[in-house]
């Protein structure tokens, strides 16, 4: 089946089985490997991308469902990696293994689009579907605040070293 | 009474065993640690080898500084590393192959002033790819901003200890990396001394520059690099090191060197790596561990879209090696995975199909009150001490099997060409991986090249190389065509090397003043005869061993075909829950505050205890102070405190939890205090590691359990093997107590105390004592 949509602002056409998940279309056909495979059943959020500005799980989204859609992946979040979240993630050194972080950032970006200054509660609600096996949640939360222009005291301190 | 000590390996051996995932019961890296032994580790390198410097020229100018190893004789290896001769290999003395190999050296400085440092160990998220080069850079005296970091491939000729496990990188690399950096600086100084005809002693460096203050002359490292390559290499054993007070990089916050690639989605993990023409494979094993292939509808699978090859593989019997399976190879993984749905295999499930969690639990329960199979340690007369104790407490504890569940599913890429294999593996133990592939495929290890890929989480899962040998075997069948084997999440959960479940039947006694005076533990674990299964053991020095005169640890083992292995803080992650929780029970039985009870125990002089009680008191007092232990709390809110020594690290933690009357648990806050020696190398990363490790412990406690039915794993994915999520993650305050001890690792030792501290907090809040994990199986309601 031929499916046409835009990815990171670029029109693409792929000829693949209609039920092939968007995740694997991005990775196999479009060489966009920043979107990760973690669970395959929308339990971890590592595959989070935007469809028309909304965060979706690419692993359970069949490619036929994105015909005509505007898809954005981590590679297209900003032209040069300087989205406020990407900067905050680096400044606060969020990543440990880093595998989930593209999905975290994409989910957070969708949150900030609709809620520019989220509270802790709003962050927890929005981000609860994204697993981080290294459990970098405290810095993720802080980095979202940081990007939203609201730096807060870090949850952990190392004042006594 | 006689004392029996088991599995009392020398620290180096224990660390190596833990790192290589061998099937020995080694709880933590703390096995057999003698008091004061930490100091002796200053000189430890790879056991039995001595490291020498190698200098070589870079085409186009500049120099490289690497190391090489000579094996020591057995006699030398046992003693302090001593040989007097400095091993110096200059470029001229090296053949072409050696020169090429030196491209993977530790330091490369080119005339343009670019400093490239090589990170030798697998990066699993612990931050070692940033931390080891930081150590070199500081002694070399360069600006961190001018440094480029490259990941080494697996190369045992040049690098020692290329593994990620046991929190070993810091203690084993701290001095060697400093020496490498310091040697590079000395050679640059020598080059300047020669050029200016002045003594080396008259020269100093500032980052990236050599100065002769007397004449005002200076030269950049880039300008000196080519000359430096012709200077004799200093002896690593005697090269002068910086005074720690002069560190410029060590001890400062340095960000992950891959952060930019990670946040833009360009970081290549094993799963992302491709080779032109690469195919993808699913490798389907029997759901019952170790089951054998009998027959299957392979032709039908072969006819599925995109499928190129389908074949059955005959494996062996070792659960950590190549097992029987069906390889489905297709143009894309999604096609192979889709084709798997029509695969119908008849397996010979074997005896393991009779094994299951219910039977294990029944067996463990039936052993309560029975004579144990064997004694691990016995001191004094615990029965007599119990009969004269003022209060005696009996309790049985249980913790379940756990899966590692790293977020990047197991995968490995391999290409077989003319009898040689090239492998791209996200593995924590490349050395064992290559050895396993060589022995399974009957190859020389020298014919196998293994590249290290950045790893999407380790946690001990990738100490085992089962997925590596699967890729190698499939690649051999494809003869020339590169292939990536990728597991599904379901395969990852169902074919793990699980943290073994355990049961502890405990009896303890306190005297009239509430002091612990007697302790007996009948530990029911997995293994054969008197040999514990992998990560299923208990150490003879497991606390409170040595601190209680009348003491016994004994064990009975269940033999089962369930693969077990090291999960972050192996052994400790279950044992600490039991020991610290039961200590809490005894403190309450004696009417003593849980902190005071522990401090009193740690004020004793241990007989063959497992650690330095003074350091443990230090972190316990620090965490109590930071948490303001003892403050009044509202009803339904409680605090627990716990400590643990593992992987050479000392940690004490306080957890505050609130439980609603209906039993809904909220973890309010965690305070953690750690002592990992004289230097926190990268505080930014250290704090993050501690926070993540604490939350990992809470994650295990909250809802994780692997159960076995009919020889197979029941759980399949994150909906029934839940990881902690953001909403559940409390703030974690991290404090370090700096002590005059060699720096040690931070991959693991923070994890164990979080679990009993949480459970004791729940007790303080509700009066309900948690003796079985996970918490989701416990009713926490109160009135």
Low-confidence stretches of chain A: 151-161
Instruction: Describe the sheet with the most strands of chain A.
Output: 5 strands, mixed
Shape of chain B: globular
Strand order of the largest sheet of chain B: 12-13-10-20-17-18-19
The Cα radius of gyration of chain B reads 27 Å
Order of helices and strands of chain A: EEHEEEHHHH
How many beta-strand elements of chain B?
A: 30
Shape of chain A: globular
Strand order of the largest sheet of chain A: 2-1-5-3-4
Tell me the structural class of chain B: alpha+beta
Largest contact between chains: A-B, 64 and 73 residues
Q: What percentage of residues of chain A falls in helices of 4 or more residues?
A: 25-40%
| Beta-strand proportion of chain A | 5-15%
Mean pLDDT of chain B: 89
Number of strands of chain A: 5
Average residue-wise pLDDT of chain A? 93
Can you give the helix content of chain B as a percent range?
Answer: 25-40%
Count of helical stretches of chain B: 20
Gap between N and C termini of chain A, in Å? 60 Å
Largest sheet descriptor of chain B = 7 strands, mixed
Task: Please provide a written account of the structure.
The complex is a heterodimer of chains A (161) and B (783). Chain A is built from 5 helices and 5 strands; from the N terminus they run E-E-H-E-E-E-H-H-H-H. Chain A has 161 residues and is α+β, with helices and mostly antiparallel strands. Chain A has a 5-stranded mixed β-sheet with strand order 2-1-5-3-4, sandwiched between helices. In chain A, a hairpin with a 2-residue loop joins strand 3 (48-51) and strand 4. Chain A is globular, with a radius of gyration of 16 Å. The N and C termini of chain A lie far apart (60 Å). The model of chain A is unreliable at 151-161 (pLDDT under 50). With 783 residues, chain B is of the alpha+beta class. Chain B is 28% helix and 23% strand. In chain B, strands 12-13-10-20-17-18-19 form a 7-stranded mixed β-sheet, with helices on both faces. In chain B, strands 3-1-2-4-5-6 form a 6-stranded mixed β-sheet. In chain B, a hairpin with a 5-residue loop joins strand 21 and strand 22 (516-528). In chain B, helix 13 packs across helix 14. The longest helix of chain B has 28 residues, at 169-196. The two termini of chain B are 47 Å apart. The chains are: A alpha+beta (161), B alpha+beta (783). Chains A and B meet through helix 1, helix 2, helix 3, helix 4 and helix 5 of A and helix 8, helix 19 and strand 30 of B.
């Amino acid at each position: 089946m031929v499916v046409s949509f835009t990815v990171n602002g670029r029109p693409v056409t792929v000829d693949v089985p209609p039920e092939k998940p968007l995740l694997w279309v991005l990775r196999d056909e479009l060489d966009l490997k920043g979107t990760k495979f973690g669970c395959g059943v929308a339990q971890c959020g590592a595959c989070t991308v935007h469809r028309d500005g909304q965060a979706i799980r690419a692993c359970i989204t069949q490619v036929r469902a994105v015909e005509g859609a505007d898809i954005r992946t981590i590679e297209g979040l900003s032209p040069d990696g300087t989205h406020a979240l990407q900067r905050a993630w680096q400044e606060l050194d969020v990543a440990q293994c880093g595998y989930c972080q593209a999905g975290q950032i994409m989910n957070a970006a969708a949150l900030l689009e609709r809620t520019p200054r989220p509270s802790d509660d709003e962050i927890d609600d929005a981000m609860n579907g994204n697993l981080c096996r290294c459990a970098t949640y405290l810095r993720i939360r802080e980095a979202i605040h940081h990007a939203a222009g609201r730096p807060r005291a870090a949850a952990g301190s190392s004042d006594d070293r | 009474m006689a004392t029996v000590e088991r599995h009392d390996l020398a620290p180096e051996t224990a660390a190596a065993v833990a790192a290589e995932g061998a099937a020995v019961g080694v709880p933590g890296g703390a096995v057999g640690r003698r008091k004061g032994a930490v100091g002796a580790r200053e000189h430890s390198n790879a056991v039995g080898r001595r490291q020498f410097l190698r200098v070589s020229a870079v085409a186009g100018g500049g120099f490289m500084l690497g190391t090489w190893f000579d094996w020591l004789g057995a006699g030398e290896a046992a003693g302090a590393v001593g040989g007097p001769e400095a091993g110096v290999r200059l470029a001229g003395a090296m053949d072409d192959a050696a020169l090429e190999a030196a491209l993977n050296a530790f330091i490369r400085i080119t005339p343009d002033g670019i400093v490239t440092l090589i990170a030798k160990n697998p990066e699993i998220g612990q931050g070692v790819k940033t931390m080891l080069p930081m150590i070199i850079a500081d002694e070399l005296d360069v600006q961190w901003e001018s440094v480029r970091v490259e990941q080494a491939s697996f190369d045992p000729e040049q690098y020692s200890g290329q593994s990620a496990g046991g929190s070993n990188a810091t203690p084993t690399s701290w001095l060697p990396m400093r020496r490498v950096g310091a040697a590079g600086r000395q050679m640059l100084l020598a080059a300047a001394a020669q050029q200016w005809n002045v003594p080396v002693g008259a020269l100093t460096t500032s980052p990236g520059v050599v100065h002769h203050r007397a004449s005002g002359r200076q030269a950049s490292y880039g300008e000196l690099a080519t000359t430096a390559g012709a200077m004799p290499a200093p002896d690593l054993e005697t090269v002068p090191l910086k005074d720690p007070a002069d560190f410029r990089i060590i001890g400062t916050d340095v960000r992950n060197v891959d952060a930019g690639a990670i946040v833009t989605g360009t970081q290549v993990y094993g799963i992302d790596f491709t080779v032109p023409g690469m195919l993808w494979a699913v490798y389907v094993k029997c759901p019952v561990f170790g089951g054998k292939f009998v027959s299957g509808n392979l032709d039908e699978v072969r006819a599925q879209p995109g499928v190129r090859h389908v074949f059955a593989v005959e494996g062996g019997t070792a659960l950590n090696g190549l097992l029987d399976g069906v390889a489905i190879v297709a143009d894309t993984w999604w096609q192979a995975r889709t084709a798997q749905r029509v695969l119908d295999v008849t397996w010979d499930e074997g005896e393991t199909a009779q094994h299951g969690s219910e039977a294990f639990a029944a067996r463990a329960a039936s052993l309560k009150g029975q004579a144990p199979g064997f004694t691990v340690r016995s001191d004094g007369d615990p029965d007599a001490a119990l009969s004269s104790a003022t209060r005696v407490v009996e309790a049985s504890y249980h913790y379940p099997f756990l899966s590692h569940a790293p977020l990047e599913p197991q995968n490995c890429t391999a290409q077989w060409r003319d009898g040689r294999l090239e492998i791209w593996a996200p593995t924590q133990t490349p050395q064992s991986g290559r050895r396993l592939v060589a022995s399974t495929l009957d190859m020389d290890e020298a014919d196998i090249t293994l590249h290290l890929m950045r790893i999407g989480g380790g946690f001990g899962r990738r100490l085992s190389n089962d997925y590596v040998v699967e890729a190698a075997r499939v690649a051999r069948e494809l003869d020339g065509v590169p292939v990536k084997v990728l597991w599904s999440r379901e395969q990852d959960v169902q074919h793990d090397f699980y943290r073994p479940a355990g049961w502890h039947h405990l009896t303890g006694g306190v005297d009239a003043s509430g002091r612990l005076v007697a302790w007996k533990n009948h530990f029911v674990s997995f293994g054969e005869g008197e040999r514990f299964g992998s990560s299923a053991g208990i150490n003879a020095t497991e606390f409170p061993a040595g601190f209680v005169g009348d003491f016994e640890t004994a064990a009975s083992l269940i033999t089962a075909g369930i693969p077990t292995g090291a999960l972050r803080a192996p052994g400790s992650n279950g044992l600490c829950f039991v020991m610290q929780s039961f200590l809490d029970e005894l403190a309450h039985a004696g009417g003593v505050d849980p902190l005071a009870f522990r401090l009193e125990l740690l004020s004793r002089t241990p007989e063959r205890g497992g650690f330095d009680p003074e350091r443990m008191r230090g972190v316990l007092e620090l965490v109590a102070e930071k948490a303001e232990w003892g403050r009044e709390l509202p009803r339904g809110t409680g605090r627990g405190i716990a400590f643990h020594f593992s992987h050479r690290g000392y940690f004490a933690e306080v957890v505050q939890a609130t439980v609603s009357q209906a039993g809904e648990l909220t973890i309010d806050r965690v305070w953690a205090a750690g002592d990992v020696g004289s230097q926190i190398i990268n505080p930014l990363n250290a704090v993050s590691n501690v926070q993540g490790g604490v939350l990992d412990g809470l994650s295990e406690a909250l809802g994780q359990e692997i159960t076995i039915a009919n020889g197979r794993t029941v759980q399949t994915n994150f909906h029934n093997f839940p990881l902690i999520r953001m909403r559940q993650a409390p703030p974690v305050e991290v404090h370090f107590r700096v002590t005059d001890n060699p720096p040690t690792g931070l991959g693991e030792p923070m994890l164990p105390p979080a679990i009993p501290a949480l459970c004791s907090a729940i007790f303080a809040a509700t009066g309900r004592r948690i003796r079985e994990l996970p918490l989701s199986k416990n009713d926490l309601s109160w009135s």
